[in-house]
From TrEMBL:
It comes from Danaus chrysippus (African queen). The keyword Signal applies. It holds the Pfam family L-fibroin. GO terms for cellular component: extracellular region. This is Fibroin light chain. It comes from the Eukaryota.
Length: 267
């Protein structure tokens, strides 16, 4: 059992990056997370994140995880969809012993930024298809993590054929649209995630770089549409993974729901 839990505070404004203050407290002093009974909850996402090795999570990734947990407890569907999609993708991204590439995330972010600026969605459609395939692969990774943790922890993340491993893309342009289209329930936590993602985007750590791309792509409004349309099966899969349930069956349902949701995206 880990003797400490990480508690962080950070302040930010619309134009400032966060300044982190890290304190360690005894785990016995930490309040347990109470399940609120909703389909998506902080208790569920917090438990799911326990699947990964907390000692190998970058500091700013810890900040993203706390924001995801808070999104999960929000009452609006957009925030809950963001929490579930981002939790699945972040767990898979952080689970492997050696980080892979972020090609699908970077390609989606670039296509998303281009579509927003030009109105041309042709490249966005194909990028979304590839990204949903990456989410499917991430679901499979979590299934492996539940059934045989060492098979993931001693493996490398997925590799792609893209320049720089997908760690250079139109970060600010994508986030401008994410924040500009946020509803009042989302904006505070999305701004926290932007600040943390920006630090990871410019970090020297490959794992941090990859997570920044994952966060940015996962929070794009078209992925959020997909997440909302597939929310039930995705949440059931994440809950099964968190509780040690039948992840094999729920994984198949989640991937089928993603496929259906992809066909209902409104551009």
């Amino acid at each position: 059992m880990l003797p400490f839990v990480l508690v962080y505070l950070f302040a930010q404004s619309a134009i400032a990056l966060p300044t982190a203050l890290v304190n360690f407290v005894d785990v016995n002093e930490a309040r347990p997370v109470i399940d609120n009974g909703q389909l998506v909850s902080k208790a569920m996402t917090d438990k799911a994140f326990e699947l990964i090795d907390g000692a190998d999570i970058p500091l700013y990734a810890q900040m993203v995880i706390q924001s995801v947990n808070d999104q999960a407890n929000s009452g609006d569907a957009a925030s809950q969809a963001s929490a579930v999609v981002l939790a699945i993708n972040a767990i898979a991204e952080l689970a492997s012993g050696i980080p892979g590439d972020a090609c699908e995330s970077a390609a989606l972010v670039n296509a998303y930024a281009y579509a927003v600026s030009t109105g041309n969605n042709a490249g966005l459609r194909s990028a979304l298809i590839n990204y949903v395939q990456r989410i499917n692969a991430n679901i499979d990774t979590i299934v492996r993590l539940v059934n045989n943790p060492d098979s993931v922890r001693y493996s490398s993340g997925p590799r792609g054929n893209c320049i720089g491993g997908g760690r250079s893309y139109q970060f600010e342009e994508a986030w401008d649209d994410i924040l500009n289209n946020a509803n009042p329930f989302q904006i505070g936590l999305l701004n926290e995630e932007y600040c943390a993602a920006k630090r990871m985007y410019t970090a020297s750590s490959i794992r941090s770089n990859n997570l920044a791309a994952t966060v940015t792509a996962s929070l794009s409004r078209y992925v959020n549409q997909i997440g909302q349309n597939a929310l039930g099966p995705l949440a059931e899969f994440l809950r099964a993974a968190a509780s040690g349930g039948n992840v094999n069956a729920s994984a198949g349902n989640a991937k089928a729901a993603l496929s259906r949701a992809l066909g209902r995206v409104q551009y």
